[in-house]
């Protein structure tokens, strides 16, 4: 319809309606704008409320700020890599000096620092295989690191020809120390790292294949558990707020596992893995699984 005619028609209709309406009608008509304003206000408030609700999702409400935990974990990683470089230096000095028995004594304690923070090392590309690859994990020409030297000390029973590998191991640990200053540690890495440390023990290390020459596997087990427990301790306040029962279950499971490992402690270290009977290995594996299961629920509860 032509707008000019529409406006004219509308004006004529308004005049006729005004002329035919009583004063009561006029009063009723006069109240209509107020009612409309009230309705519009209510609609506006409802729209605003709906908009605010839409911008606050359940995930936002349940998200946990883990910045402080991440900062504390980085400090822990730096502390452990400092100790790794220092103890690896002593280990390498013993090897390069031909001190076979001394090198054997220093091997497992030095590795514990690495095993505690292994999730970080694994996030740094080739550093993990360069430091910790086992025989068969990489091409023979590329094999170096702790386990290459382990084989020389226990199976070959000699330090001959090991200087190159020893020096490269120390160099690799120093590079790791430099990189942990700036490596990105997000909440996901923190939460999954604890579970991965335990899973690695229960799925592969418990078989005894990790330290197959030295049989110092229990040192690795203990270090992995300690690394996982450190992460849990940093997340515990947030976890306790979300689920006190799960938090207590995890704490109790850590204690059971630590008590079991302590039973194999000897002279400041641990007994040879060969000492454990089959049922003891099975029990150890079961306790690892019993801890890993509730620990794996942390991520969901913390919104990671």
TrEMBL record:
<comment type="similarity">
    <text>Belongs to the EfeM/EfeO family.</text>
</comment>
<feature type="domain" description="Imelysin-like">
    <location>
        <begin position="69"/>
        <end position="298"/>
    </location>
</feature>
<feature type="signal peptide">
    <location>
        <begin position="1"/>
        <end position="28"/>
    </location>
</feature>
<dbReference type="InterPro" id="IPR053377">
    <property type="entry name" value="Iron_uptake_EfeM/EfeO"/>
</dbReference>
<dbReference type="InterPro" id="IPR034981">
    <property type="entry name" value="Imelysin-like_EfeO/Algp7"/>
</dbReference>
<dbReference type="InterPro" id="IPR050894">
    <property type="entry name" value="EfeM/EfeO_iron_uptake"/>
</dbReference>
<dbReference type="InterPro" id="IPR038352">
    <property type="entry name" value="Imelysin_sf"/>
</dbReference>
<keyword id="KW-0732">Signal</keyword>
<dbReference type="Pfam" id="PF09375">
    <property type="entry name" value="Peptidase_M75"/>
</dbReference>
<protein>
    <recommendedName>
        <fullName>Imelysin-like domain-containing protein</fullName>
    </recommendedName>
</protein>
<dbReference type="InterPro" id="IPR018976">
    <property type="entry name" value="Imelysin-like"/>
</dbReference>
């Amino acid at each position: 319809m032509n707008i000019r005619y529409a406006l004219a028609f509308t004006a004529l209709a308004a005049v006729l309606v005004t002329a035919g309406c009583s004063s009561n009608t006029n009063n009723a008509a006069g109240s209509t704008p107020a009612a409309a304003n009230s309705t519009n206000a209510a609609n506006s408030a409802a729209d605003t409320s709906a908009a605010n609700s839409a911008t606050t999702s359940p995930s936002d409400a349940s998200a946990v700020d883990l910045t402080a935990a991440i900062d504390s974990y980085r400090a822990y990683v730096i502390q452990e890599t400092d100790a790794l470089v220092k103890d690896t230096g002593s280990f390498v000095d013993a090897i390069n000096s031909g001190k076979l028995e001394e090198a054997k004594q220093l091997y497992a304690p030095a590795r514990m620092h690495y095993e505690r923070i292994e999730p970080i090392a694994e996030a740094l590309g080739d550093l993990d295989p360069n430091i910790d690859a086992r025989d068969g994990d990489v091409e023979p020409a590329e094999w170096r690191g702790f386990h290459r030297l382990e084989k020389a000390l226990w199976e070959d029973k000699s330090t001959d020809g090991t200087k190159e590998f020893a020096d490269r191991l120390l160099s690799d640990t120093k590079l790791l120390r430099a990189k942990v200053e700036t490596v990105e540690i997000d909440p996901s890495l923190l939460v999954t790292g604890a579970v991965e440390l335990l899973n690695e023990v229960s799925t592969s290390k418990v078989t005894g294949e990790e330290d197959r020459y030295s049989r110092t596997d229990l040192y690795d087990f203990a270090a992995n558990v300690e690394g996982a427990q450190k992460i849990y301790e940093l997340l515990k306040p947030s976890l306790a707020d979300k689920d006190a029962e799960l938090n207590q279950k995890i704490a109790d499971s850590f204690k059971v596992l630590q008590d079991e490992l302590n039973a194999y402690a000897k002279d400041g270290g641990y007994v040879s893995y060969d000492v454990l009977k089959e049922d003891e290995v099975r029990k150890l594996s079961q306790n690892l699984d019993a801890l890993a299961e509730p620990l794996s629920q942390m991520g969901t509860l913390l919104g990671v």
